[in-house]
């Protein structure tokens, strides 16, 4: 077996271990038993391969002549795969945050009301505004209870009034009662959704004061955490300016549509429009995906090569893809697309063969290692990988079946790619959302070809608006025209 195949199956075994652990609670005792058995298998196979000679004149019944050679090699391979499988189980169990410190102070009542505690820390993501409420992930660095201060490094979800405005990196002191989250909707596991984000507790409408952290807690932060906060604040600040420029240059709801395809931002998209996208199977357009990353990479690379040497342009593009991933919120689809895009870049840059099958399994395993809950509990992760797998495994089959049909302006390729992705994700869409639109295919065929133009002109409108607002509005008119066509097509198929 080739080394690349060994790596492929090893990564698949790791993912399998995480998958099994997601549904079956496996105790440490059983994990220890499995480890002993697997290590014994590896030791026996290694001993056979090293010390027992191959019998030269042994009967060849059932391959007996090569038993020690082939058998020991297969034993080593099987043992290694099982070992990686067990490692997947261990990784999932270790991620479960059973020993959360904040969770120990949740749901405690004193005098008929929740125990009030104080958390010192900072906002660890972009706040989500919904009407009069704002929610954000709060990175607690210090927990203060009567007569005790405890160092922590955990996240909790805080809900407050939408005013005053708060931003990523704001250092705050929040005082309130911690609660464990509850599932309020039958078809949505809110508890697991938060756990996937490393959140085990929530705090609603606490008392908030701003803290400078010029002394104790700030100096106790590591170098990389300080650097991350500083970098992310600058990136999100730039993002907010860019969004504002688009909102000023293009009228609604087209401005929200452009922000969606460029930045994955959906906060300001009207609910009626979101529903139309869902019913026509075009929601993926608003979620930054491999398609969007590909368009951006081609456009940026073409511009960079014009001004810089190829090697310099290569590393600048790598940096831009990483920054773009952060800028768009690092959702599962964006991270997957970015990893695969970077692997393709490095393969081309260093003269290596690019195998999309190895690329997608490597991207998936890396993401699952970082966050094992993503495999089973992140719908975006599942849809993103299934769509790509449809392109890898289903598209070549369909392309071969319809090879006699002539290509016309890439319409055949686009149609077959859309069908391939839709076939792959259809079972999951039906399972989660209990619906599948028969109009998804024609809608995507009519809308997708115009996405690159909408992205390019929308981007130029945002940049122009940041420099000189009238220029942004002039370019924005063309973005409005293209996105109006796309929106009207989607609305038309909703009404059929």
Break the fold down into its secondary structure elements and pairings:
Layout: H1 3-23, H2 28-51, H3 67-94, E1 109-110, E2 113-114, E3 116-123, E4 128-130, E5 133-145, E6 148-161, E7 171-179, H4 190-196, E8 199-204, E9 207-210, H5 216-219, H6 223-249, H7 254-263, H8 271-279, H9 290-307, H10 310-327, H11 332-349, H12 356-370, H13 374-377, H14 379-401, H15 411-433, H16 440-447, H17 451-467, H18 469-495
Parallel strand pairs: 6-8
Antiparallel strand pairs: 1-2, 3-5, 3-7, 4-5, 5-6, 7-8, 7-9
Quick overview of this protein structure:
The protein has 496 residues and is an alpha+beta fold.
Give an account of the 3D structure:
- The protein is an alpha+beta fold and 496 residues long.
- The chain folds into 3 domains: 3-94; 102-219, OB fold (Dihydrolipoamide Acetyltransferase, E2P) (Beta Barrel), CATH 2.40.50; 237-495, no CATH class.
- It is 61% helix and 12% strand.
- It has helices at residues 3-23, 28-51, 67-94, 190-196, 216-219, 223-249, 254-263, 271-279, 290-307, 310-327, 332-349, 356-370, 374-377, 379-401, 411-433, 440-447, 451-467, 469-495; strands spanning 109-110, 113-114, 116-123, 128-130, 133-145, 148-161, 171-179, 199-204, 207-210.
- The strands form 2 sheets. The chain has a 5-stranded mixed barrel with strand order 3-5-6-8-7.
- β1 (109-110) and β2 (113-114) form a beta hairpin.
- α1 (3-23) packs parallel to α12.
- The protein is globular.
- Mean pLDDT is 80; it is low at 58-68.
């Amino acid at each position: 077996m080739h080394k690349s195949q060994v790596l492929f199956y090893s990564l698949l075994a790791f993912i399998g271990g995480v998958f099994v652990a997601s549904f079956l609670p496996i105790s440490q005792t059983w994990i220890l038993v499995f480890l002993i058995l697997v290590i014994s298998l590896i030791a026996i196979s290694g001993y056979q391969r090293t010390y027992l000679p191959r019998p030269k004149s042994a009967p060849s019944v059932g391959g007996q002549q090569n038993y020690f050679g082939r058998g020991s090699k297969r034993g080593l391979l099987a043992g290694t795969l099982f070992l990686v499988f067990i490692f997947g189980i261990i990784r999932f169990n270790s991620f479960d945050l059973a020993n959360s410190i904040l969770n120990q102070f949740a749901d405690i009542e004193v005098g008929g009301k929740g125990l009030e505690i104080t958390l010192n820390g900072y906002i660890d993501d972009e706040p989500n505004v919904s009407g009069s409420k704002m929610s954000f992930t709060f990175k607690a660095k210090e927990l203060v209870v009567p007569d005790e201060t405890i160092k922590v490094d955990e996240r909790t979800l805080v809900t407050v009034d939408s005013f005053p405005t708060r931003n990523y990196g704001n250092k705050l002191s929040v005082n309130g009662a911690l609660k464990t989250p509850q599932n309020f909707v039958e078809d949505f596991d809110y508890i697991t959704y938060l756990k996937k984000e490393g959140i085990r507790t929530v705090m609603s409408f606490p008392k908030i004061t701003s803290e400078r952290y010029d002394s104790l807690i700030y100096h106790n932060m590591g170098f990389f955490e300080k650097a991350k906060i500083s970098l992310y604040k600058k990136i999100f600040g730039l993002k907010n300016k860019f969004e504002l420029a688009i909102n000023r240059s293009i009228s609604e709801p087209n401005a929200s549509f452009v922000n969606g395809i460029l930045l994955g931002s959906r906060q300001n998209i009207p609910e009626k429009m979101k529903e139309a996208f869902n019913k026509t199977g075009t929601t993926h357009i608003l979620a930054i995906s491999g398609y969007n990353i590909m368009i951006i990479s081609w456009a940026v690379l073409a511009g960079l090569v014009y001004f810089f040497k190829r090697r310099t342009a290569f590393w600048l593009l790598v940096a831009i893809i990483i920054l773009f991933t952060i800028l768009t919120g690092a959702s599962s689809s964006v991270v997957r697309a970015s990893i695969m895009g970077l692997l393709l870049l490095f393969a081309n840059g260093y003269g290596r063969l690019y195998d999309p099958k190895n690329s997608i399994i490597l991207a998936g395993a890396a993401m699952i290692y970082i966050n094992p809950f993503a495999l089973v509990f992140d719908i975006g992760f599942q849809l993103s990988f299934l769509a790509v797998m449809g392109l890898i495994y289903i598209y070549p089959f369909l392309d071969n079946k319809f090879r006699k049909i002539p290509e016309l302006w890439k319409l055949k390729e686009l149609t077959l790619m859309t069908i391939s992705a839709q076939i792959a994700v259809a079972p999951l869409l039906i399972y989660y959302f209990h619906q599948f639109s028969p109009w998804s295919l024609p809608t995507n065929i009519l809308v997708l070809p115009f996405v690159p133009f909408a992205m390019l002109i929308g981007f130029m409108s945002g940049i122009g608006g940041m420099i000189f607002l009238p220029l942004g509005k002039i370019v924005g008119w063309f973005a409005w025209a293209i996105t109006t066509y796309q929106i009207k097509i989607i609305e038309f198929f909703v009404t059929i």
